[in-house]
Design a protein that fits this description.
This protein is an alpha/beta fold. The protein has two domains: 192 residues, Rossmann fold (3-Layer(aba) Sandwich), CATH 3.40.50; 128 residues, Glycogen Phosphorylase B (Rossmann fold). The chain is built from 15 helices and 13 strands. Helix 2 crosses helix 15 and helix 4 packs across helix 5. The longest helix is centred in the first third of the chain and has 19 residues. It is globular, with a radius of gyration of 22 Å. The relative contact order is 0.12.
Length: 373
């Protein structure tokens, strides 16, 4: 073959490869991940050269904790439903790892996207790394520096396995640098703000409860699994000056039942089922203040300019602590009442971006997959 034809054929082959679609698989399994996945799926689908599929591990399997988010946020039904359900950390992660590996071997994606710090996140990252599939970690660099939390182990390991690390703030960037991680890091803001802007733009109105209230959610084992602790939490809620609307996690509800704790003994608490995304935002928007141990709700409270009290000894989202818009209460629950009476100082926004994180991530992934490979 003539040299010119060799060059022409080589160029044609390269052009063909560049015009081929790249397959991206996302892994979701818990409520916050559905919220984060929605705007990213929308942004990725704007690029016609992406094929996007999702794996739902079933880590959250109650309809109010999972399916409702697909319906409300207009996300495509997952291509794969693993239905792993509840189990010990090791068993649950192993089940996910085995199933995700089989899917990746079959689908041969160009990239795997994982979110946050759940067992689903770690299982996806482990499966992809063993198969040499590039990993994009959204919410990289977060640290509580509390290694008794399974989430801390998950996020640290996932960061070390990831190719692209999308961090929400300068603080997260510095956390990674302290650990010797410097390649592939991009400051993009927080993707949950994207979703909240979609919600607020969709005729979001405050919840119509007639009386002022606090809105509460709890799910972390150190707040719910010990009987003395949960009794103290409920007593603290019951003693507050305003009623507490408590959206109770299915697992917490089951624990209360197994501990023979009668919820009718707490007249100041209105126990309600877990809420869909838009209803949850409405309850938060209508509340005087938020009480939670959820990282996601801390941020949503911050975005909505709602003061928050977090029932944890630490938080990954330390920016929310500025001027007491978020206050940590843990050991002495008597401090809860006082913390709720504090008026926060000046609100300083912008530390988590402006709500265009998904587009930034999609563009970075696009250039990574088409310009560097």
């Amino acid at each position: 073959m003539f040299p010119s034809l060799v060059l022409l054929n080589g160029y044609a082959e390269l052009l063909s490869q560049r015009n081929m679609k790249k397959k991206i698989i996302t892994v979701v399994g818990a409520r916050p991940q559905f919220i984060k996945n929605a705007p990213l799926e929308m942004a990725l689908r704007k690029h016609e050269r992406f094929e996007v599929k999702s794996i739902h591990t079933g880590q959250h399997y109650d309809d109010n904790m999972s399916r409702v988010f697909f319906e409300e946020l207009d996300i495509d039904e997952p291509a794969y439903q693993l239905n792993v359900g509840s189990a010990s950390h090791g068993k649950q992660t192993a089940r996910m790892l085995e199933s995700i590996e089989e899917i990746l071997l079959m689908e041969q994606p160009s990239m795997l996207v994982v979110y946050g710090d759940t067992n689903s996140t770690l299982a996806g990252a482990l499966a992809a790394s063993k198969l040499h599939i590039p990993i994009a970690h959204i919410e990289a660099g977060l640290r509580s520096y509390n290694k008794t939390m399974p989430e801390e182990i998950n996020r640290v390991l996932t960061d070390y396995l990831s190719t692209l690390l999308f961090v929400p703030s300068e603080v997260s960037l510095k956390n990674l640098h302290k650990e010797g991680v410097s390649d592939g890091i991009h400051i993009v803001g927080d993707i949950m703000l994207d979703t909240l802007k979609i919600a607020v733009g969709g005729n979001l109105t405050h919840n119509t409860q007639e009386t002022p209230y606090y809105y509460a959610t709890l799910h972390r084992p150190y707040n719910t699994d010990d009987k003395d602790r949960i009794l103290n939490v409920l007593s603290a809620f019951n003693a507050l000056s305003l009623p507490v609307v408590f959206a109770i996690h299915p697992r917490t509800s089951a624990l209360l039942s197994s501990m023979n704790i009668a919820i009718d003994k707490y007249p100041n608490i209105d126990f309600i089922a877990p809420q869909g995304y838009f209803d949850n935002i409405r309850y938060m928007a209508g509340a005087e203040k938020i009480i939670t141990d959820s990282g996601g709700l801390q941020k949503e409270a911050w975005f909505l300019k709602k003061p928050c009290v977090t029932l944890r000894p630490e938080t990954e989202w330390i920016e929310t602590l500025t001027n007491q818009w978020n206050i940590l209460v843990f050991e002495d629950l008597k401090e809860l009442k006082h913390a709720l009476e504090i008026t926060p100082g000046k609100y300083i926004g912008g530390c988590y971006g402006e709500g265009n994180t998904a587009n930034k991530i999609a563009n970075i992934i696009y250039h990574f997959l088409f310009d560097t490979q």
